[in-house]
Design a protein that fits this description.
Layout (H helix, E strand, L loop, with lengths): L1 E4 L3 E8 L14 E7 L1 H11 L4 E5 L1 E2 L2 H12 L9 E2 L5 E7 L5 E6 L21 E5 L3 H13 L3 E5 L7 H6 L5 E2 L3 H6 L4 H8 L7 E4 L5 E5 L2 E5 L12 H15 L3 H16 L11 H11 L3
Parallel strand pairs: 1-4, 1-9, 2-7, 5-6, 9-10, 11-12
Antiparallel strand pairs: 2-3, 7-8, 12-13, 13-14
Helix pairs in contact: 1-7, 7-8, 8-9
């Protein structure tokens, strides 16, 4: 069972002709919709879509949007029976999507009441987990769960997109860090991706992965650097692509694929998600990912 602890969100999506540029004061909206996402919730929906048993642990707000989000996850086949519901509004995001490129700009707000006190984490929370996936939004609780999972011999993956004072301590308990583009450079102050990952190797012995946006993804396995290019698709909405990538990477871990195959599949999953609107709504079924790989071949 893949367990995910971290962000979920209600997303107000605005499709616009172009993203705001310097000096712009008014923009027309081509269409709008309310959707659901959040990086860990979307990743768990993607894990389920790729054929893996997945559970979302939360946190989620105790409001109408929180209940609707859990309904969406249930519909997607995600186990929400262990989800922690907090007395706070569900995280909210306004996402502007450029209709010609699928690029997006995210504005978000999160009530501190969504943070989970470590002492309120239920005992035996991870008893049936094989892999734990965490983000660094509720950093203290995520670090606690990651340390517990690793001590129990479980695989731990992550979604980290910012550097905090606890970043290295956080990563020490993640067996397979999956970092957002720019994070290795921010952690090491080295611009070159390969060199920055090699520098990280002095403090972390595991597989180090970084997403590279439209360049694909890279990983350092031991001292071997592997970079796999992205698949080229016509993007409708890039929201959630990184979350779906992580689900694809997790499937590679479950299947014990070589790192090149894992990155290639994860890139294809992310690309397939970009052809669909929304975060959770944009999660592709497994057959669509394989169809993309077979139709385009090696990127």
């Amino acid at each position: 069972m893949i367990f995910g602890f971290g962000e979920s969100s209600v997303d107000e999506v605005l499709v616009v002709p172009e993203l705001p540029r310097a000096g712009a004061s008014k923009l027309p909206v081509s269409s709008s919709s309310t959707r659901y996402g959040g990086q860990v919730a979307t990743c768990m929906a993607a894990c389920a879509a790729l054929g893996m048993p997945a559970a979302y642990l939360g946190p989620v707000g105790d409001d109408e949007h929180g209940r609707a989000l859990l309904d969406v996850l249930r519909t997607r086949g995600v186990d929400v029976s262990r989800t922690i519901v907090r007395p706070a509004p569900t995280r909210r995001a306004v996402i502007m999507v450029e209709e010609t490129t699928g690029d997006r700009l995210v504005f978000w707000e999160r009530d501190p009441g969504l943070d989970v006190p470590v002492e309120e984490l239920p005992p035996g929370f991870l008893d049936v987990a094989t892999i734990l996936h965490v983000d660094a939004v509720d950093e203290r609780a995520s670090m606690h769960l990651a340390a517990l999972a690793r001590a129990q011999g479980r695989t731990v993956t992550c979604d980290i997109d910012r550097v905090t004072p606890q970043a290295w301590e956080f990563l020490a308990n993640v067996t397979h860090p999956i970092l957002a583009s720019g994070l290795p450079s921010a952690l090491t102050r080295i611009d070159d991706v390969r060199t920055s990952l090699s520098t990280m190797r002095t403090r972390h012995a595991g597989v180090l992965c970084v997403t590279l946006g439209d360049r694909g993804a890279a990983a350092l396995v031991g001292d071997d650097y592997v970079e796999v290019p992205a698949f080229t698709v016509r993007a409708v909405d890039t929201t959630g692509a990184g979350d779906v990538f992580r689900a694809g990477f997790i499937l590679g871990l479950v299947k014990a694929w070589p790192i090149e195959e894992t990155l290639r599949f994860a890139n294809a999953a992310a690309a397939a998600s970009c052809t669909r609107a929304g975060a959770i709504d944009g999660v592709p079924p497994l057959e669509d990912v394989w169809a993309l790989i077979h139709s385009l071949g090696s990127p």
